[in-house]
Amino acid sequence: MPSSPIDVLARHCEHAATADPWTDLPILAEVLDTLPDPRSRRGRRYRLGPLLALMLLAVLGGATSIAAINRSISGYDPDLLSHAGLTGTLRLATSTLRRLLARLDGDTLDTAIGTYLAALATDSPPAPGPPTGRPPLTGLAIDGKTLRGSRTTDGTVHLLAAARHDTQTVVAQRQVAAKSNEIGAFTPLLSSLDLANVVVTADALHTQTEHARQILAAGGHYLLIVKGNQPTLHRRLKALPWRAAILNDRTDERGHGRREIRRMKICTVRPDLPFPHANQAIQVKRRRTDHRTGTTTIVTVYAITSLPPGRATHAHLATLIRGHWSIEALHHIRDVTYREDASRVRTGAAPRVMASLRNLAIGLARLIGWTNIAAATDHYRSHPADGLQLLGLNT
Q1: How many CB atoms lie within 10 A of CB 170?
Q2: Helices within the chain (DSSP H only)
Q3: Is residue 168 within 8 Å of residue 329, measured between CB atoms?
């Protein structure tokens, strides 16, 4: 087993064969083969797991539609198909793949993918840093995304996901029910996750007392943004003695034509704060200057956390707040690199399954060491055998 996933990436860049970076975990095709197969037994020519693995290989290479996936699979070398577990002449119709994806169980697929990615993320080498006496805290961002091209007369598919801050791996995803909102999907999203040493971050929509109690009951902590949907809590946070509070953290970042200065203050929360298990209140002032227009905007954000004083350093708290927006970066990659919003897949579970395959492809690429997903898709499009290695199907 290589010393780290980075070694595997280096060998991929040299187009050299190497071992599976996670040899002690099940092969992905075998994991996918355990899913309920919606096809009639009489009409099955290919096993579900290897077929889905080949579809993932196409997505890993940048395929943005079901038709593009089929074209990629049709162009694979017979030896590569054999290593993937599909022997003989492979003849697939785009309509056949579309019907298969539309009929898959989205919840079961997302659970399998989330469990697999969570195991890979846990098995990866820990981030460098000074040793501490307590287990490190992992940030887990909760956010939703609408698949704009999936609109039908019944509405548009909206997904709620939980993604790790450090690797952008989606470890859980649920589809929001029609005529509902993300609040109702929050409980089932986190119900199967181990939240020990996890800090769940979310925007103001999910600053709900029941959500906080669920997170604490599962052994985790929360860090939640507070806005006007919790008027009493927001008012009391604003009334805290921020002027007298010391500056706990300051960052100054430049890039993308702007400069942003963040100043963070922390108050130990008063006992009468109307939110369960809130131990600290946070104020963040963001001063952003756009160098192209010369305009400066100042935004004040309030947050609360169940973390007790001393459990995380001030710099770590600031990192957790900023890290929440890593899930927005994930959504941006799906829209720009994979053209998700331009997709017109609408039937059944197919829009959600395509989003799940994109999450899985991005997560695998991140865990192996890729920082530029567009570059990763270029590489695996040209070298699909490396993609098979990444899926545990050595050539």
Answers
A1: 26
A2: 5-13, 28-33, 48-60, 66-74, 78-84, 94-103, 106-123, 182-190, 209-217, 231-238, 314-323, 326-336, 350-368, 373-382, 384-390
A3: yes
CA-CA distance, 327 to 162, in Å (whole number)? 8
d(C-alpha 305, C-alpha 286), whole Å: 19
* Per-residue pLDDT tens digits for 54-105: 999 999 999 999 999 999 998 888 888 888 877 766 778 999 999 999 999 9
Compute the distance between CA of residue 336 and CA of residue 340 in angstroms, rounded to an integer. Answer: 7
Q: Which tokens is 339 given?
A: 């053209």
For 156, counting Cβ atoms within 10 Å of its Cβ (0-12 exposed, 13-18 middle, 19+ buried), the class is middle
Please give the biggest Cα pair distance in the chain.
74
Q: Which of 292, 106, 331, 302 is nearest to 223 (CA)?
A: 302
Report the interhelical angle of 350-368 vs 94-103 (nearest 10°). Answer: 90
Task: Tell which residue, 126, 87, 166, has the closest CA to residue 5.
Answer: 126
β-pair partners for 282? 266, 303
What are the pLDDT digits (tens) for 315-360? Answer: 999 999 999 999 999 999 999 999 999 999 999 999 999 999 999 9
CB within 8 A of 271, min separation 6: which ones? none
Q: What is the SS3 assignment for 236?
A: helix
Q: How far apart are CA 109 and CA 175, in angstroms?
A: 12
Q: Say how many residues make up the chain.
A: 395
* Burial of residue 133 (number of CB atoms within 10 Å: 0-12, 13-18, 19+): exposed
Give the phi and the psi of residue 222 in degrees, each rounded to 5. -125, 155
| Mean pLDDT in consecutive groups of 10 residues from the start of the chain, 395 residues | 48 50 67 93 85 94 95 88 76 91 96 93 58 80 94 90 95 92 95 94 96 96 96 94 92 88 89 86 94 92 95 95 94 96 92 97 93 95 89 66
Closest CA to 92 of 67, 66, 70: 70
Output the six-digit token pair for 182: 């993300």
